[in-house]
Amino acid sequence: MGTNDRERQFDQIVARLTADYPSLAGRPRRSRRLVAVLAVLGGLVWGLLSVAMVAWGAVGIVLTCVVVAGVGTAIAVDEHRWRSR
What is the SS3 assignment for 3? Predict the structure, then answer.
């Protein structure tokens, strides 16, 4: 019984701390499968953009810059949303 009381007290303390300091709760982690899929897709897109820069010249470079800026903006907006919660 003593162990159960300690676990319950610990859970209560953690709940109070995360209520007072929401940043302690952290953000949920993405699954490894999702991260792996995103990494593979990102590599394929980067490879295709590299080929486009060589094959299309200036147009491929502009396309690559636009895609990189879009992805960077999406990541920045996502981080801002997570931090503002």
Answer: helix
By the 10 Å C-beta count (0-12 exposed, 13-18 middle, 19+ buried), 49 is classed as: middle
Rounded distance, CA 44 to CA 25, Å?
A: 35
Question: Measured between alpha carbons, how far is 78 from 85 in angstroms, rounded to an integer?
Answer: 11
Q: Which whole-number Å values give the CA distances from 21 to 57, 83, 85, in the listed order?
A: 51, 13, 12
- State the residue range of the domain holding 17: 2-83
Q: What is the domain count for the chain?
A: 1
Whole-number Å distance between alpha carbons of 53 and 56: 6
Token pair of 64, please? 């690559």
pLDDT block averages, 10 residues each, the chain of length 85: 80 86 74 91 95 96 96 92 77
Amino acid at 59: V
| Residue 45: other Cβ atoms inside 10 A | 13
Structure tokens at 48: 């295709």
